[in-house]
Design goal:
The chain is of the alpha/beta class. It contains 35 helices and 24 strands. β5 and β6 form a beta hairpin. It is globular, with a radius of gyration of 28 Å. Bound molecules: ligand 26W. Belongs to the glycogen phosphorylase family.
Amino acid sequence: MSATTPLDTSKLDPRKTDPDAVARQIIGKLTYQIGKRPDEARKYDWLRATTLVVRDHVMDRWFASGDRIAESGAKEVCYLSMEFLIGRLLRDAINNLGLSKPVTEALARYGVQLDMVELLEPDAALGNGGLGRLAACFMESMASTGVPGYGYGIRYVHGFFRQEISEGAQVELPESWLVHGNPWEFERRDATYEIGFGGHVTTVHESGKPARQVWRPAERVLAVAYDTPMVGWRGAQVNTLRLWSAQAVDPILLDAFNEGDHIGALVESNKAESITRVLYPADSHQAGQELRLRQEYFFSSASLQDIIKRHIARHGDLKTLHEKVAIQLNDTHPAVSVAELMRLLVDIHGIAWAEAWQITSKTFGYTNHTLLPEALEHWPIHLFERLLPRQMQIIYTINAEIIRHAAQEKGFNDAQIAAISLIDEGNGRRVRMGQLAFVGSHAVNGVSALHTELMKETVFHNLHELYPDRIQNKTNGVTPRRWLMECNPELTGLVTEAIGPAFLDDIEKISEIDPLADDAAFVEKFAAVKRKKKEALAALISERLAIQVDPNAIFDIQVKRIHEYKRQLLNIIEAVALYDQIRSHPEKNWAPRVKIFAGKAAPSYAQAREIINLANDVARLVNSDPVVRDLLKVVFIPNYNVSAAEIIMPAADLSEQISTAGLEASGTGNMKFALNGALTIGTLDGANVEMKDHIGDENIFIFGLTAPEVAQRRREAHSGRSIIEANPILREALHAISSGLFCPEAPSRYHGLISNLYNNDWWMICADFEAYWNKQRELDQLFAKPREWHSKAVHNTARMAWFSSDRSIREYAKDIWQAGPGAVA
Ligand code: 26W
C-alpha cells in the first residue's frame, strides 16, 4: 500500500459482531497488543484485550459523531465539571453497543466469564458523590439523546480515597486507578495549552489603539488532554470526555541537576503535576486551599482555550461563540471561567468589553447543587489576586457594572447591593463564586423544584430580584441504562417479557407495567427478582464482612456520603431503639430487618467520622446478640462507590431518604432505588417531593417536618431536650448510646454527639424521631403483607421514568442550551 492510499478500514473490520469475529478480535489483542497466548493469559489480560476490542467498536462511531457535528455546524454543549464519577465503563459500552451476547460467547470459548472480567475493571472515582455522578449520567444521556457535547474535567491520578474500617473507624487509603494503565483514554498531545499563575498585569499603550492589559504570569504549566469516549444508547452517538492532566513546561531543571541538586531539579515538575494529582475529598466544606483554586483555574482555562480554538477552526469568528457553544458550569467549581473567558475575549482576542460580556453571559449556564452555607465557595481576595491578578481585575470591573445597574436602574439600597456584590466585604474580603457564576450566566438552575424555590428565597434572593427571569428548575435524573439495564438485567428481562423491549429506547414506556401491580403472577415474579438481588447482596456481605443476613428480612438501606444533614444518625438511633424494644419485648411480632449503611466521610469532618464509628459499634453488638437473632442486623459496607451501588440499589426493599427538609438539593440515589423497586421512606426534601407526585402518596412513605417548619424551629432556637424527655423510646436509645453500651472500650466516645441533640438538635433528629419511628412501624406492618408491598414496588418502577436523565438533558437542551435534536443549527 502506498503512503497516499487511504486506509481501507472495512478490511480491518472491527465492526463484525458475530461471536466468531469477536473471539478473533480478542485473541488478536491478546497476541499482538499484550503479547500472550490464550493459555498464558491471566484475568487482567482478558480484561485488557476485551476492553481494547470494545474500544475498536466505538471508534468508527466516535469519528462519525465528530464528523456529523463538524459538518452540520450544530451547537455543542460543553459540560465543565470538577468531578466525573463515571465508575466502570466496560459493561456500559458493551450494553450500549449491543455487544453483550457476542462478547459473552466469545470469552466463554476460552472458559472466561464476561461478568468476572467486568468486575476487574477499576472503578473510576473522579468525584465525591451526587454532583460527580450526575455529571456522569448526563454525559451518557447527552450521547443517548443526540446532544453533541464534551465533558471537561480533571484527570486526577488519585481519585476518591479507598475506605477501610478498622476497629469501627474510617481509614483513608490512596486510590490508584491508573496503575495498570487506562485502555479507554487517548492522550492528545496536540491539545496542549499553557496555563499561567501569579505574576503581574501591565497596561500597554500602542499609538492609535485603546490601552490593553497584558498579564505576565510568573509560572506556567501545561494542560494535556486525555479523551475518553462516552457511548450513547445503541451507539447512536459517541461524545468525548476530555480530562486535563498537568505537566511542567520543563520536565527537569538540568542546570540544578548538573550541579548535584537532584531533588531541586524536579521541584518545578512536581509542583506542576501536583495540580492534577488528587481529588479533594470534601463535598460539603469549601477546601480553602490554594491548590484547590489552582485546580479550578487550571481546568477552566484549559477547557476555554480548547473551546475557543475549536470554534475558530470551525466557524472563524469568535463573536458567534454563544451561537455555537453552550457551556454549563457544574456548581461554582469552574466559576472562574466567567472571568477567564472575558480575559481571553478582551485581552487575547481584542473584542470590546461590552460585546465580550454579551458573548460570555449568553454562553454560560450555571447549576447550583447546594445551599449549605459552608459549601458555598468564596476565596480570600489576597489569594485570588496573587494567583490570578488579571482575573481579579476583571471581577472588579464586572462587579462595578452590576452594582451600577442595580443602584441606578433598580434602585437597590446598600443592604441589597452588599448581598449581590461579587465581593463579600464582611468576611475578610472574599470573592463569592456563586455570585460570579450567577451574573455571568444567562440561565441559573436548581436541581429539584423545592431546591430551586429555596434558591430564590435564600442565597440568591437579591440576585433573583435583580434578574427575575434567570433562575429555573431542572430536576435531576439518572441514566436507566446503567441504573436499570446494566445493574438489574433480571428486572429488565422481566419487564421486557411483560411489555416488550420498546421501553429500552423510550423509558417512558416502562409505565406500561403499572397495571400489572394488580396481577398476582407478575407481582410474584417481580418479588422473585428482588429476592435474587437480595441474595446477591447477602452473599457479598457474607464474603466481605462475615456477617450472615437473611434475605427474608427487610433490606433497609441508606447509602450516600456521610453528613449530618443526611441524618444517618437518625437511622442509627432508630436501629438502637429497635434493638432495645426487641430485647424488652421479644414476644412481639417484629418484622425482621437488616439495616445497611455505606458511605464515606470527608477526612476532616469529625462528626461524620463519629457517625461511621457509631454505625460500626452498634453493628458489632447487635449482630452478636443472640436475643435479637435474625430480627435485626446492622451492616456497614466499607468503600461505597459506583460499583458497590450497582449491587446495592437493586437489592433494597426500603430506601432511606431522610435528610432534614430543605437541605438535600435533590438526591439521585433516591431515584436509583425507586426505579429498581424499593419503597422510599423519606422527608419532603429535594426530589422526594416530585417522586411523591409521580409515584403516588400511597406508594411512598413520607414523614417529618417540612422545609418551612424546619426554618421556623431554627428561628425559635429549638432544642431536643423536652422532646427526648417526653419520648421514652428515644430517651432509652440515646441513653444506651451515650452510656458507652456499644463501645465499652471508650465509654465516652459518643457523649458529644448525644449532648448536641439535647442542647441544640440543629438537624431536627429529635424533632423528627417520633414520626420516623411510627412510619417505620407502618412499614413493618406492610412487609407482613408481601403481595401489597411488592405491588407498591411495581408502581415505583413503573412510575419513575420521568426521573431519567434523558428527560433532564432534553430540558437543559431546550430551555438552556438551545442545542441537540430539534435545535436550529
Ligand atoms: C467546595 C466543596 C464542595 C464540593 C462539592 C461543595 C459542594 C459540592 C457538591 C455541590 C456536593 C454535591 O454533590 N451535591 C449534590 O449534588 C447532587 C446532584 O445535583 C444532588 O442530587 C445532591 O442532593 C447534592 O447534595
